[in-house]
Amino acid sequence: MTTYDDRASLTDLTATVERVRSSVEGVIEGKPEVVRLSLTVLLAEGHLLIEDVPGVGKTMLAKALARSIDCSVRRIQFTPDLLPSDITGVSIWDQQRRDFEFKPGAIFAQIVIGDEINRASPKTQSALLESMEERQVTIDGKTYELPSPFMVVATQNPVEMEGTYPLPEAQRDRFMARVSIGYPSAEAELQMLDIHGGVNPLDDLQPVAHAHDIVKLVEAVRGVHVAEPVRRYAVDLVSATRTHPDLRLGASPRATLHLLRAAKASAALGGREYALPDDVQALAVAVLAHRLLPTAQAQLNRRTAEQVVQEILQHTPVPTAPQQQSGLTMGRGYGQQPPRRL
Fold first, then answer.
1. Where are the beta strands (DSSP E) in the chain?
2. CA distance 281 to 261
3. Helix count and strand count (H, E) for the chain
4. What are the two backbone dihedrals, phi and then psi, of residue 154, each rounded to the nearest 5 degrees?
5. Per-residue pLDDT, 130
6. Mean pLDDT over all residues of the chain?
7. Residue 227 · residue 331 · CB < 8 Å
8. What percentage of the chain reaches a pLDDT higher than 70?
9. Phi first, then psi: what are they for 239, rounded to 5°?
C-alpha cells in the first residue's frame, strides 16, 4: 500500500495529478474549483453528480476527465426507454454451447459517463445502485466484479426541465458530491470562443495518466491521517442535518463516510498527509446538500438545502488544533510540516 511515508512516490503522484488537472482545465475554461472537486471525488473513490442547465459543459467535463486517464470509458445516454439490462448486461442463450453467456453492459468500465441520468425512469436508475455502492453487478444469481478504479460521472438537468424524473433518495445518496458548473465569466467565455470556436477541444485531448497511476493515488489518499477531533466534527455536521427544523430528511451515515473520504482527498490535493477541519468545511455543501430534503414550509420560504448546510457550518463548533506534547503533535492530527501544493 502506497503511503505518504514514501516520499518518492508522493512526488510521482503529485506530478500525475497536476497533469490530469491541466488536461481537464484546458477544456473547461475558468472553472478550476469544479475541476478540483472532480479530482477530489476521483481520489476519494466516489461518484460525481454534475447538475446544471443545458449547454454549460456538464458532459464536456465528464468526457475531459475520462479522456485524460488511459482507462476504459463507456458513455450511457439515459432516455425514458433505456432498460436496466442495457446498463448491467444480460445472459443470452448460446445455441452452440447450449448454455447461457453473459454479455456485459455499459457499466463494465473504469469510468462510466451517465448523460442526463434523470431522463430515465426510476426502475432504470436503480440498476446503478449495486454497482455504485458495492462495485459489482449481480445477474441471474452470479456476481461480477467491476474494474478498478471505478467511477460514475453523471450529468442531470434541473428537475424543472421537461422530461426529467427526480432521482430517488437512494440514488442521490450514492453520489459522493454534486457540483454545479454555472455560466462562465465574460473573460472565460471570450477565451473559449478564441480557443475552441472552430474545433472540438476533446479531439486533441490525449491521456496523461494510466489507470494504475490512479490506483496508486487512491491508495495514497487512504493513508491520509484524520485526527479524532476532525472525525467528530464531521459527525457533528451530519448529525445536525437530522435534527434541523427545515429538513425532513437528513444525511445518512454514508454521507459521513463520504465527507471524511473527500476531506482526506482534499488534504492530499493540498499536499498534506493529514486532514484539517478546513477540508471538511470546504466540502460540506458539495457532499451533503444533494442528500437533504427540505420541509414543505422551508420550500415555501425558498430555503434551499445549500443554505441549511451553510447555517449548520456557522453554528457547529470547529475543533481547535491539538496541543503539542514532547515536541510531537497529538495524534499526528494537524501536523507541523509546511503543506506541499498538489
1. 48-51, 69-70, 73-77, 89-94, 99-104, 111-115, 136-139, 142-145, 151-156, 177-179, 209-210, 247-249, 293-294, 324-325, 328-329
2. 13
3. 14, 15
4. -110, 145
5. 93
6. 84
7. yes
8. 87
9. -60, -35
Considering only residues 184 and 5, tell me which one the structure prediction assigns the higher pLDDT.
Answer: 184
Predicted confidence (pLDDT) at residue 243 exceeds the cutoff of 90: yes
pTM tops 0.70, yes or no: yes
Alpha helix ranges (H) inside 93-177: 122-125, 129-134, 169-173
The continuous run of DSSP H or E covering 300 comes out as helix 296-300
3-state SS assignment for residue 210: strand
76 pairs with which residues across the strands? 114
Residue 235 and residue 238: Cα distance in Å, rounded? Answer: 5
Residue 55 has φ and ψ, to the nearest 5°, of 90, 5
CB neighbours (10 Å) of residue 150?
A: 21
Distance CA 315, CA 318 (A): 9
| pLDDT-derived band at 176, boundaries 50, 70, 90 | very high
What pLDDT score was predicted for residue 49? 93
Q: At what angle do helices 253-269 and 211-222 cross, to 10 degrees?
A: 110
Closest by Cα among 155, 60, 81, 85 to 117: 155
Q: What is the dihedral of CA 266, 272, 274, 276, to 10 degrees?
A: -60
CA gap 220, 37 in Å, rounded: 18
